[in-house]
Design goal:
single chain; 292 residues; alpha+beta; D-amino Acid Aminotransferase, Chain A, domain 1; 3 domains; five-stranded antiparallel β-sheet; four-stranded antiparallel β-sheet
Length: 292
C-alpha cells in the first residue's frame, strides 16, 4: 500500500490482493477511455450503483446513482480522474474493524469495531419527506445534496414508523453515526481479521469497511469489503456520541502506540523509509484527486 495508505493509495490496487468473493463487482473507469454503458453490460451490473474516486478521502465524491442518466452526469464531474463503478451492496448493516499485526513478532489483534448507522428519517404519518429531512438534527447531513437526490419524493407523506435512509455513504462527514461494537471483539473476530489480512502480505495495519447482515456473519467471514484504509485510518469508535474527551485521548494514544510499534519492527528489518519527495508528491496527488 503506497506510503502505508497515508495519502494517495489507490483502492483498485488493494482490490487486486483481495479474493473476489469478498468484493463487490467493480469497474475501474476513466471517462475518455471506455464506454461505461458497454462495461456495465459486460460486467452484469445493474442499478443502483456506487461511484467513487479510486483515490479518495473522507467520502469525497462518493455517490449512489440510480439510473444511466444520473451515472453519466456524475461521471462527467470526475473529468479525467480514475473512477470506481461498483454494484450497490444490499446487506442489512455496515461495519468497520481496525486490524493490526506486528511484522516480526506476528502479534495481532482488533483495536476497534464499529457499526455505521446511515442517516435516516422516521415517518410520523403526517409530515412529507421534505419536512422530515429539514427537521433532522444531523449537523453533518449535506442537506442540499439529500434534497436534490430525493426531489421526486419530497412531497410524499411518510407512514408512521417507516424508515427512510437519506444518504447511502457510511461516512461521518456525510451524516452517518458510529457506534462501538467493541464488546463483540473476541477470538473469532480477531481470527477473521488474521485470515483476511493473510491475503494482504506487507500490509500490517488497516481498517476494513464492510457490509454484512449481522455481527455473526462478520465473524464467520460472510461479508463484502467496500475498501481498506491504511495508516490514515482512525479507531472509529471515538466518534460514538457518548464517548468522553478523556476516553477519546486514551484510545488515540493507544492507537498511535500500535502504529509506532509496527513502524519500529519494520524499520529494524529491510524496510526503508520513503523520502520527503515521495510524501510531497503523494500530497499533491491527493489534492488533485480530491479537488472538484
Amino acid at each position: 500500500m503506497h506510503l502505508g495508505g497515508m495519502l494517495d493509495d489507490r483502492k483498485s490496487d488493494i482490490y487486486t490482493m483481495i479474493p473476489d468473493h469478498y468484493l463487490p463487482k467493480t469497474i475501474v473507469f476513466q471517462a475518455q477511455n471506455s464506454d461505461i454503458s458497454e462495461l456495465i453490460k459486460a460486467n452484469n451490473l445493474t442499478f443502483p450503483l456506487i461511484v467513487k474516486p479510486d483515490i479518495g478521502y473522507k467520502g469525497f465524491m462518493v455517490k449512489r446513482v440510480d439510473d444511466e442518466k444520473e451515472l453519466h452526469r456524475v461521471l462527467g464531474q470526475f473529468e479525467e480522474k480514475e473512477v470506481l463503478v461498483q454494484e450497490f451492496l444490499n446487506h442489512e448493516r455496515e461495519f468497520a474493524f481496525l486490524f493490526y499485526r506486528m511484522p516480526k513478532s506476528q502479534k495481532y489483534g482488533v483495536s476497534s469495531f464499529v457499526e455505521k448507522i446511515l442517516p435516516y428519517v422516521m415517518g410520523d404519518g403526517k409530515s412529507n419527506l421534505k419536512a422530515l429531512i429539514e427537521e433532522n438534527a444531523n449537523a453533518f447531513l449535506d442537506l442540499g445534496y439529500v434534497l436534490n437526490k430525493k426531489k421526486e419524493d419530497l412531497d410524499t407523506i411518510i407512514p408512521k414508523g417507516q424508515k427512510i435512509i437519506v444518504d447511502h455513504v457510511g461516512n461521518y462527514s456525510r451524516g452517518s453515526k458510529f457506534y462501538s461494537r467493541n464488546d463483540s471483539i473476541d477470538e473469532s473476530l480477531i481470527e477473521t481479521g488474521r485470515q483476511f489480512f493473510n491475503h494482504l502480505q506487507g500490509i500490517n495495519f488497516g481498517r476494513i469497511d464492510l457490509k454484512a447482515n449481522s455481527i455473526a456473519d462478520v465473524k464467520n467471514g460472510k461479508f463484502k469489503v467496500m475498501e481498506i484504509n491504511g495508516v490514515k485510518s482512525e479507531p472509529l469508535h471515538i466518534y460514538e456520541p457518548e464517548m468522553s474527551w478523556i476516553k477519546i485521548w486514551e484510545v488515540i494514544s493507544e492507537h498511535w502506540k500500535i502504529l509506532n510499534s509496527i513502524a519500529k519492527e519494520q524499520l529494524s528489518g529491510s524496510y526503508s523509509l520513503p523520502s520527503a519527495k515521495d510524501g510531497i508528491e503523494a500530497a499533491k496527488s491527493l489534492k488533485r484527486q480530491t479537488t472538484n
